[in-house]
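Quarterly update from the structural biology core.
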Amino acid sequence: MSPLDVHVNRIPIDGTVDYLNYVKGDYLVAFHEKADLRNERSEIGITGKYGKILFTQVAGFVARRIVYDIKQGDTVKAGNRFGMIKFGSRSDVIVHKGWKAKVKLGIKLLQEKQFFLRK
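Predicted structure, tokenized:
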């Protein structure tokens, strides 16, 4: 994401938050190949009817403020806002290898329903 994009983060699937971890770290540029491992980030795990997913909010060189308002044990709905990364950065979604994304590389998401992953 660039500083000109909207940085609101949304829940990718219905389910229960069963993992929440905040990691202090570096502030490499968000597109750096090691940013997901070395930068400050939140890691969020949700279990839903199709299984478990893990997603992250990763801070970057400019974006140094991650905000979220969910906690472990919360029941969440796909599409609901849960946080933001101020001034741009990156979010990763890790799913089971059998899932298929409904988006294509390079597409800017304008509606949250375009993003949902299905098994």
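The helical segments are 35-38.
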